[in-house]
Amino acid sequence: MRHPILLSMCVAGAFTVSACSETEGQDVDRAFQGVNVVDETNLNDVMLSVADPNEAVAYFQRAVGEQPKRIDLQRGLAKSLIRAKRFTEAVPAWKKVTEHDEATDDDRVDLADALIRNNEWDRADTVLDSIPPTFETFKRYRLEAMIADSNQEWKKADSFYETAVGLTTRPAGVMNNWGYSKLTRGDFAAAESLFSDAIRQDDSLFTAKNNLILARGAQQKYSLPVMSTSQEERAQLLYTLGLSAIKQGDTGIGKGLLRDAIDTHPQHFEEAVRSLRALEG
Question: How far is CA 87 from the centre of its chain?
Answer without folding.
Answer: 13
